[in-house]
Amino acid sequence: MPDTTALISVTDADLADLRARLAGVRWPTALPIAGWDAGTAMGEVRRLVEYWASDYDWRFHEAAINALPSHFAELDGVPVHYLRYEGEHPDALPIVLTNGWPSSVLELTGLAERLASPSRFGGLAREAFTVIVPSLPGFGFSPQRPSLGGTQQTHELWHRLMREELGFARYGAHGGDLGAGITSRLAEAYPAEVAGIHLMAVASPVSPDEASLTPPERAYLDEVAAWTAREGGYIHEQSTRPLTLGYGLADSPTGLLAWILEKYRAWSDCGGDVSSRFSDDFLLTQASLYWFTGTISTSFRPYYENGEGLTRRVERVDVPTAVALFPADLGHPPRSWAERVYNVVRYTAMPRGGHFAAHEEPELLARDITEFFSPRR
């Protein structure tokens, strides 16, 4: 597949269809519950839907997306879209960045720019990276993999992209959420080529010895259990019946927006005010990307594959690992818990930020990545 920057071109008819659906939305009957306690607040959804249907300028954002440094590679018949940001220094270390859900490569562009051109942001040119940001299969611009499980798992595609397609003999990797799992499997499978990994979440040990758990580890497991009971319904649905959920969200842009908006509020360091961290245009561009590419249902597939045991479990990662934990993210494992699986050489408790740290706190994240990889160039 040839390289192209004409990444997305929405027809006038498709844009008119979106606006008609937004204008004619059938709203659910409100419950006598205020705010966000029972789910996404109707007032916030109504406000965003009204803006999406009228003044939101998709053509402006479409042009910005098409101006990104986009390329395609075909790996064993699997097309993979990626952004490439050239490092400003000739000895720039290659690094692959992987997002999670419900995100996209658009969330990582500010981080990628800081890593590739640090001198533009007050850093040193010699600290530059050549940054590769692939679109996850089934997210936005990369079609889903043709079969479940198998040898074409995402970390294998990433390694083929970095080594065979782009010719990097050695590279680093960063990821959060789903991207942390992909990054971990990448390092576990290819320790000779992966110089180090930087994570915002960690895999749990396969069979931890209950008797050996420390008090902080027990507190962390209690935290996970409480979070799962309160916030984990989406995981169960996306892991067990993703297609059933997909029918509604692929047909209703309002439903799609409400599904992901809840997460941007609950998982970010916004103090309950999602607008304090994300502009309306950012949120609606993310929703529009899922809508126009028809990929909200395929974005659930990693959850289903994991739930069905089709994703390779992370057992032991000996590659040097950095863990950066943001206070509003989903979990906060103690260092000893991470060390049960990883060779942890850096562990940072960030002062602010959440699940979407690449967008919320790109400077903090870029600095931590840069300092971790500095002795590994």
Describe the protein in words:
There is one protein chain. This protein has 377 residues and is of the alpha/beta class. The chain folds into two domains: 36-58 and 224-305, no CATH class; 64-203 and 313-376, 3-Layer(aba) Sandwich (Rossmann fold), CATH 3.40.50.1820. It is built from 15 helices and eight strands. The protein has helices spanning 12-23, 42-53, 58-66, 109-116, 154-165, 178-189, 215-231, 233-240, 242-251, 253-266, 280-293, 301-307, 335-339, 357-360, 362-373, and strands spanning 70-75, 78-85, 93-98, 129-134, 171-175, 194-199, 317-325, 342-349. An eight-stranded mixed β-sheet has the order 1-2-4-3-5-6-7-8, sandwiched between helices. Helix 5 crosses helix 6 (178-189), helix 9 crosses helix 10 (253-266) and helix 10 crosses helix 11 (280-293).
Numbering strands along the chain, what is their spatial order in the largest sheet?
1-2-4-3-5-6-7-8
Identify the overall geometry. Answer: globular
* CATH fourth-tier homologous superfamily of the largest domain: Alpha/Beta hydrolase fold, catalytic domain
Strand fraction band? 5-15%
The description of the largest β-sheet is: 8 strands, mixed
Residue share in helix:
40-55%
Computed structural class = alpha/beta
**Secondary structure tally: strands:** 8
> What is the distance, rounded to the nearest whole angstrom, between the alpha carbons of the first and last residues?
32 Å
The CATH topology of the largest domain is Rossmann fold
Helices, by number, come to: 15
Spans of 5+ residues with little confidence (pLDDT < 50)? none
Named at the architecture level, the CATH assignment of the largest domain is 3-Layer(aba) Sandwich
Order of helices and strands: HHHEEEHEHEHEHHHHHHEHEHH
Which CATH first-tier class of the largest domain would you pick? Alpha Beta
